Amino acid sequence: MGENAATRNHNNHQAFGVVSIDVPSQDTSECFDDDGRIKRTGTVWTASAHIITAVIGSGVLSLAWAIAQLGWIAGPAVMFLFSFVTCYTSSLLSECYRTGDSVSGKRNYTYMDAVRSILGGYKVKACGLIQYLNLFGISIGYTIAASISMMAIKRSNCFHESGGKNPCHMSSNIYMIMFGVSEILLSQIPDFDQIWWLSIVAAVMSFTYSGIGLGLGIAKVAENGGFRGSLTGISIGTVTQAQKIWRSFQALGDIAFAYSFSVILIEIQDTVRSPPAESKTMRKATKISIVVTTAFYMLCGCMGYASFGDFAPGNLLTGFGFYNPFWLLDIANAAIVIHLVGAYQVFCQPIFAFIEKLAIQRWPDSYFITKEFKIRIPGYRYPYKLNLFRLVWRTIFVIFTTVISMLLPFFNDVVGILGALGFWPLTVYFPVEMYIQQKKIASWSSRWICLKMLSMACLLVTVVALAGSIVGVIFDLKVYEPFKTTY
């Protein structure tokens, strides 16, 4: 399966905007894998680190608010439930890395490759559509989160300088525009996702602001002299009964968003060396990373709720539950911005590559689409290759996401919608369906019924969470004027 397998895989990758390097198969097994590619060196620990880096992100900032809607009983219970379901379905998905035999079967290099090899048909297109819509939504969510953090730095300094007398109201629009301009410039860097240091910077930044949020929560609990909150969450009176219901539903979406990593699990698994079987290594890595992540989430979410009770802010570091030390808040919010500036590009690169590949296939002789101009940059060895189509298309994409963000700048609601949209199809449905097909589980057998019941139950959670988040947007729009409202 040397050259033919490599060629097939190259075509699969190109069809969905993933750039790969094909290496011809060699006789020696010391440097090359069974498919002719350079030998993988990943271990259970490197895979665990990749998962933790991918999972712990801006979603952690909304967990205190989510637990506040559900209370001390349901909040942690729901978080444990999501962690269990994610761990279980991830173990099913890891079995689909190789089609057929889990040791010697054909390798699937991406999530999409696995769906194509095992399920095929219209489900491949459905999976692609959901993936790209999810990535598009994440770009909007990151624009909102980054602008809120930039605004929080300005408000924190303003509040400190006025001694708390100035409410420091301001519009988020200018900060979204600033973020958009930076992304327009960065989006012109080809293959940005291959810059290895980006993940390291993102990991350091995410642990920085999450750690600061946790530390401030612990300090606030100590200052209050005890834990705040109630067993059932935010009380009727603080919100209406209808708001209590819808907010509880939305909280499910926020928690689901915090556990979203299944879409990149196959890609991470492709870095793991073999033997032992990749699925065995990934099951261990998934368990380790889920335990670490859940413990971290519990600390951040529960400490945030214990600090503020019913009034836990939607974004722990920008909701101004904390005011001092203002310089520490500035560091935390700056870390969020740095993290999201890079993360935006990482998540948008597959969309960019996919559209550009389609354009080249559709108009291969177009000067506008295919021509590259070499521009010499002082201090750099290689010239920058400017492509007009890439310049125009990526700029329009960033402007579009920025405008949508300015129209709907609601962090919690958008996070809830993203979590709901991505949870069932990508974390549950496709892994379950692929596992059933891969293991040839008989219809209406006890295991088949249990897997289908799990999928249907998670579909119900997704529908409920999506409804709650959409209602949240509707409530917010009643008091919001696009491009005018200040915070």
Automatic annotation (TrEMBL):
Signal peptide location: none
Single GO term (MF): symporter activity
Residues covered by the Amino acid transporter transmembrane domain: 40-474
Keyword Flavoprotein recorded: no
Any one of the GO BP annotations: amino acid transport
Keyword entries, A-Z: Amino-acid transport, Cell membrane, Membrane, Symport, Transmembrane, Transmembrane helix, Transport
GO CC, alphabetical: plasma membrane
Similarity comment text for this entry: Belongs to the amino acid/polyamine transporter 2 family. Amino acid/auxin permease (AAAP) (TC 2.A.18.2) subfamily.
Name recorded for this polypeptide: Amino acid transporter, transmembrane
